Amino acid sequence: LNKAFNSVKDSYQTGLKLNLPKAQLDEVKNKLKEATKAKVKLDIDEATAKIDKMKLKIVAAVGALAVLRAPVKTAIDFEKAMVDVKKVTNFSADEFKHFSNEIIALTREVPKSMNELASISFEGAKLGIAQEQLLDYTKLVAQMANAFEMSTSEAGSNIANLKNVFKLKDIKEVEKLGDYINYIADTSNTSVPKVISVLNDVGAAGEMLNLNAQNLVNLGGAMTSLSIPANEASTSMSKIFSVLAGAKKATSSAKWAFKELGIDVEDMQSAFEKDGEGTLIKFLEKLKGLDRFKRA
Length: 296
What we know:
By secondary structure, the chain is mostly helical. It has 14 helices and no strands. The termini are far apart.
């Protein structure tokens, strides 16, 4: 086609030079127009065909770029998240590098991304978790959030609260307490979040009666298993603890009530100092023998 197009073009130009008749030149001119249209169409068709052939390559290339971009973006986001962690900790350069690598390795143990784990570490540091316990804290939060369908924020807050309320030395002790809470929840027809809610509310009050964390887990599990809402269970327990802890300074009517139960206030206080849970159980058993008006 290119040869034919050039031949017609040359013929027209030669005709102009030789002053050929107009009719003859118009015929050549028309042929030249037709040849031009044909050539343009062919060029377009060829270009379209080439583009069609290249489509798959283009799509593949774009896909490859997207695949490459994803991990790069993840790495950048992780680096930014770890910068936040560094701001709220006192890691040395080497310690920080080691901690970052540990967070990355932790993704193979728990169903959380690097960025999610970095965020948990950041929140933990803000809550006052010590640097040497921060990795254990991050792992426990991720596990608890996944196992008990909590948000990482809720799980992290619960762990920090339990550690502080019961004056636990490290995250390993919190983990042991969490395992016990889970056991009681499974065997008492209640749930971990409900029991934890009770513990967070009455932990400090329970200390007045020499009740430790496990004692309160047992009591919280028993009450919430009766379909008593966690907040109501906490309120009832707090009132009982307050009355019993202040028995020595009780009003005359309260002292009379203890006497009606056959309880000597001084003896009860001594008993709580020796065995908080056992003494509380005995007191509750005495209440069972009363009608609901006297119990109130």
